[in-house]
Amino acid sequence: MIALADACGGGSADTEEVGARKAACKSAPDFSLGSPSRTPDLVAYRPAALPPEPVEDLLPKAKYVLEASVARVLYQGDKPDRGGRKNVAGPIPPERCQVVQLDVTRRIAGADPGTSITVVKPLAPYVLKAGQSTSGTAFLVEGGDPFPIVLGRYGPYPSPEVEAALGRGQ
Fold first, then answer.
1. How far, in Å, CA of 164 to CA of 129, rounded?
2. For residues 169 and 44, what is the distance between their CA atoms, to the nearest angstrom?
């Protein structure tokens, strides 16, 4: 239980459910690729932020492709350590890992997640907020245990771009 409670750098012993959410964040990929908390020396030399991954590269990995609204933020990890560096040229600093509940408004492709799905938003340079408008954007979600993982370095993709990549564009 204690290992689950502090798996994402969090504080005290929590419920088993919260511990599982923290563990999900801890095992999620780091889409910041070169965040100061993981590779401080690389960040100082990168001239610019990394571009978003092409949607065509992510679609084969996605178990769910859906439009959804952010219903609740169930867990929010600690802000990543910046390694004491300030005003360093390089990629956009990563934001915390989150576990969020998405209310599905439309399934575009992939498996049917039902009316809502709990997912991990990995360490990446964006944060999801409850009630946030995600209209016209599609979440690409990879299967994962205990929770599926949102793909994409900068969050959801424009739905028309995803549908075009799937061959359904206007």
1. 27
2. 40
CB atoms within 10 A of CB 170: 5
Amino acid at 35: S
98-156 confidence digits (pLDDT tens): 999 999 999 999 999 999 999 999 988 889 999 988 899 999 999 988 899 999 989 99
Selection from 29, 17, 10 nearest residue 122 by Cα: 29
Please name the residues in contact with 137: beta carbons below 8 A apart, sequence gap of 6 or more: 67, 155, 156, 157, 158, 159
Going by C-alpha positions, the residue among 43, 51, 53, 139 that lies closest to residue 93 is: 43
Q: What is the rounded distance in angstroms from the CA atom of residue 9 to the CA atom of residue 67? A: 31
The 10s digit of each residue's pLDDT in 25-63 is 666 666 554 444 444 444 444 456 778 899 999 999 999
Q: Which residue has the tokens 């910041």?
A: 32
